[in-house]
Design a protein that fits this description.
Number of strands: 0
Oligomer: single chain
Strand content: under 5%
Helix content: 55-70%
Number of domains: 1
CATH topology: Four Helix Bundle (Hemerythrin (Met), subunit A)
Order of helices and strands: HHHHHH
Largest sheet: none
Shape: globular
Radius of gyration: 16 Å
Distance between the termini: 33 Å
Number of helices: 6
Length: 157
């Protein structure tokens, strides 16, 4: 389980980055998109660090979630992406995808928009404008920091 100081730091950073994303969405879209992603990143850190699914034994996590490489210590992955058979394992993007399927698409778009904002879009396509990035980040931050983001099994219906 995470230390309370780590959780407090991630909550604080999520809120600071979200405020900055809002502040700069009309004056500096690049900064706003980067801040929107990092608001979501830190909010997801809180969700991942506190999710009870990752308190279970690795074998049970695998049986329930079916994500290769997902295990208890995946909650400490701070790199964005990885593969289960790489030296450092899966990254936060894959953990989000495995645990929070309803937020994974928006989180992935925020990550891509942040990368594109820094390095110019490789495809020439703008994934999200700054206003939409802020809206997506705000939704993720609210859900994660309120404790609403917890892994749940897929419905069979």
């Amino acid at each position: 389980m995470a230390h309370q100081s780590d959780l407090t730091e991630h909550r604080t950073k999520a809120n600071i980055f979200l405020r900055k994303a809002n502040k700069y969405k009309t004056s500096d879209e690049v900064v706003s998109k980067i801040c929107a992603f990092y608001a979501a990143y830190h909010a997801m850190r809180v969700a991942i660090l506190t999710d009870p699914i990752l308190d279970k034994p690795d074998e049970e996590i695998q049986q329930l979630v079916h994500m290769p490489g997902l295990r208890q210590d995946s909650r400490y992955a701070t790199h964005h992406s990885g593969r289960h058979n790489s030296g450092r394992g899966i990254g936060q993007n894959e953990v989000v995808q495995a645990l929070y399927r309803f937020e994974a698409y928006a989180y992935g778009r925020l990550h891509r928009a942040s990368v594109d904002a820094r390095y110019l879009p490789l495809t020439g396509e703008i994934i999200l404008d700054a206003t939409d990035a802020y809206i997506e980040a705000e939704r993720i931050v609210q859900a994660a920091l309120s404790g609403q983001l917890k892994w749940a099994p897929k419905s069979t219906h």
